[in-house]
Amino acid sequence: MAGPLDGYRVVEIAEGVAGPYTAMSLGDAGADVIKIEQPAGDRARGWSPQTDSGTSALFQALNRNKRGISLDWSSESDLETARQLLADADVAIVDKAGLSGELSWESLDAPGLVYCAISGFGPHGPWSDNPMSELAAQLASEATASLGTIGEEPVRHGGDIGSMYAANYAIQAICAGLYARDDSDPSAPTGGQRIEVSLFGSLLAMRSTLWVALSNPDEWWGFHLDSYVKPPDHGYQCRDLPIYFSLARIRGDAFDSLIDELGMDWARTHPDFDQLRTDGAGGAGRYAAELKPLWERGFSNFDAERVIEIVERHGGWAFPMHDYERLSRDPQVAAVGAIIDVEQGDGSMLQQVAPPWDFEGTPVSMNMRAAPSLGEHQDEVLAELHS
Amino acid sequence: MPGPLDGVRVFDLTLWMVGPWASMHLGALGADVIHIEQPGVDPRTLGAGVPPAINGTSVGYITWNMNKRGLFLDLKSQADRQTAYELLQTCDVFLINMRPGAAERMGVGYEQVVAANPNIVYTAITGWGEIGPMRDKPGADVQCQYFTGFWSVNGKRDGKPEVYRHFTQMDASTGNVAAQAVLMGLLARKRTGRGQRIHVGMLRAGMALQSGRIAEYLATGAQHQPLGSAGFAAAPDQAFQCQGGDWIGVAATSEDEWSRLCQALNASEAQVDGLSDLVVDPRFATNLDRVAHRDALASLLQQAILQRPRRYWMLRLADAGVPCGYPISFESLQHHAQTIENGYLREITTSGWGDVWTGGPPWELSRTPARWFGTPMPGEHTGDILDDLTKRRASTAEPTPVIGD
Question: Which percentage of chain B shows pLDDT scores above 70?
């Protein structure tokens, strides 16, 4: 089916998170993706947690819409097969773990190929050869400074954000490389090129607001700065669940009414009561951490849903803090179709997250192909190559 | 060398962060991004006025509007609206992030823009989506981090999950996804000859960012509980304390890395009972075994790593091909060879706010390199852009479209 990248062919020689998600996104958008695994298979197949099929849920979620073959880099004929596949492709997505040194950009005879290498720390510098690691990249880029308590054991973001950020940047650069190739003057074609993206560089780019904030601010305060030293933020605990809450436009009479309705009359004699009225009293505000116990004492008498209703009615902002279980049941998530069913080889269904773009002219097909078993499409792909 | 999007022009009707972040990256890739601001806008309100500021302007605005030119247009004025339609005829991409319905009220809904330029790649960014019970709610980064569970997988071991205290990551991720969508729309236009309307919402972009973790929940019904520095998928993959108290992150997420880590630990001659048998210990035979016994494994590794300083382990592990890294602060990163040689942090001169440090570009393209240049003042290039339109008017017979609202 169509999709904006219909007609493009992609070869993925990568494993784990970043490379596979990049390739899957191009496949979701309509490209024909061939995933090459070495005989040991993508390392993510053996990660936890596993599904009933004996492969990790993560692998299933990051490898749909691909055909899979297995090649052994110790075999010269397999290397030659890979070279032929790359010569026929528009895009290569490679990482060091998946790649043989004999398939470097420079060694290939593929002038139109957009060749994207994803690494842990970037192509230059003392760590250019260090193996890719989500944890190492998060630590080195300061991402862990936004979690935990300063001076204690680092806390990582549990969402593989370095790998996912790198993938999102790789998708951009690959599409830009294809555009440069296909848009260029035929008498002086731009051709393909080599692209480099890293987890470390992507994490640093995503924290740019902090770097500007740390440059020369008028005042050394603001949530781009004090987040470094704030305590861990668990949201505002109500009787049942936590919420996010901010006063926003709650002022004057509305504020007094809010205090009444939350049964917080006791707060009027509290020494910090005047602070409660200020901009910094909620959300990520300046005094939020100090004032949170007062709000939570009020919120503890109500369920989250009720607190959200009260706050919104008074002109504030309040949102539920969903875990994935509550998120997956939320009516808005259903309305926008954020979760899709992907039929597996055995006919069972696995739920996954939908691709994030809506193309009205070249819609993405939601009829997804399940992640391949190791070498599942070997004969099919090799037959195409020799036809 | 020009960038990959050389010749592409973007009509950038974006504000706050998510839209500006998208267009900033298109500008870095070589597109001529024309960022629209209301004439006479108060600089203190730019970027939602979120502190800290530099020369009175939120650092957000300064960060998110690099790689652009600035144009004043008042879309409430009929004359400026006609200028907008004329400018749109010269553009390839239209980009907006406002709540559903706002574009139509400003005269730049899809039908109105297509009337001026039928081949435009029109991209609308929303918070919660264009449908559903929450479509009209304010959708900012903070709300989306909380709503999508971005907080639910982080935290100290055995502690409550905690929020990632950098409220830009959902905006930036959605902006990145929007830039992807624009690029894909441009590629589709090459093939089909037609532009189209594209939509990206923060809710779905934020969930896509968490594709792996959410799919794990959906497949197993189990919500991850925070593990401190440790990863869920593999073991070992966590921070350990070295001699002297410094932290180092050590990961072995493949069988190959695991055996190399075992070799490096043995070569260190650290004295720990059972260390030399790690590689044959049945508790640690496969990744799933190591995950099942992650505490016992971590205890053994911690005892060994505590016996040597961090510099030792960084050299020993990197040399053995074992993934490792340690926490570095911005002040050190500014001068670190890894950031300098890759251009990952750079000092950029802006029009009204002096020199600032920022990240990027995050890609290296060998034949069509990306660029990064400083933020313009609002409307800074109004004269240049309007002069070009005047010249174009004189040189083409094409009439300016008159589009009613």
Answer: 98
With contact defined as beta carbons under 8 Å apart, do A352 and A363 qualify? no
Tokens in use for A73?
A: 């880099």
Among A180, A208, A210, beta carbon nearest to B360? A208
Judge whether B344 and A200 are in contact, CB under 8 Å: yes
* pLDDT tens, residue by residue, B205-260: 999 999 999 999 999 999 999 999 999 999 999 999 999 999 999 999 999 999 99
What does the domain layout of chain B look like in residue ranges? 9-209+344-395, 237-325
A328 CB within 8 Å of a chain B CB: yes
Find chain A residues with C-beta within 8 A of B321's C-beta.
Answer: 131
pLDDT of A1 reads 47
Cis bond before residue A232 (omega within 30° of 0): no
The domains found in chain A, sorted by start residue, are 9-207+335-386 (3.40.50.10540), 236-320 (3.30.1540)
Residues 6+ apart with CB under 8 A from A158: B153, B154, B213, B224, B226, B227, B231, B232
Res B405: pLDDT = 46
Residue found under tokens 């040689």: B341
Nearest in space to A130 (alpha carbons), one of B275, B88, B316, B203: B316
Nearest CA in chain B to A349: B219
Give A122-153 pLDDT, tens digit per residue.
999 999 999 999 999 999 999 999 999 998 99
Omega of the bond leading into A111 within 30 degrees of 0 (cis): no
In chain B, count H helices and then E strands: 16, 14
* The CATH number, out of the four listed (3.40.50.1820, 3.30.70.260, 3.40.50.10540, 3.40.1080.10), of the domain defined by the range B9-209+344-395: 3.40.50.10540
Residue linked to tokens 């037959």: A383
Residue B38 identity: Q
Q: Do A47 and B188 touch (CB under 8 A)?
A: no
The Cα A367–Cα A265 span in angstroms is 56
Q: What is the pLDDT of residues A202-230, one digit of tens each?
A: 999 999 999 999 998 999 988 778 888 89
Judged by CB atoms closer than 8 Å, whether chains meet at B287 and A47 is answered as yes
Q: How far is A269 from chain B (nearest CA, A)?
A: 31
Q: Which of A25, A190, A218 sits opposite B54 (nearest CB)?
A: A218
Residue A356: both structure tokens together: 């994030």
* Residue B386 to residue B323: CA distance in whole angstroms: 54
Q: Is A64 helix (H, G, I), strand (E, B) or coil?
A: coil
pLDDT for A198: 98
Element (H, E) at B251: strand B247-251
CA dist B320 → A50, A283, B315 (Å): 29, 46, 9
* Mean pLDDT, all residues of chain B: 95
Q: Domain spanning B237-325: which CATH class is it, in words?
A: alpha beta
pLDDT value for A284 = 78
Q: B79 CA to chain A: closest CA distance, Å? A: 31
Query: Could you report the per-residue pLDDT of B6-64, keeping only the tens digit for each?
Result: 999 999 999 999 999 999 999 999 999 999 999 999 989 998 888 999 999 999 999 99
Q: Are strands B57-58 and B9-13 parallel, antiparallel or unpaired?
A: unpaired
ipTM above threshold 0.95: yes
Evaluate whether A9 touches A23 at the Cβ level (below 8 Å).
no
Is the CB of residue B7 less than 8 Å away from at least one CB of chain A?
A: yes
What's the one-letter identity of residue A76?
E
- Which of these, B40, B35, B38, B8, lies nearest to B24 by C-alpha position? B35
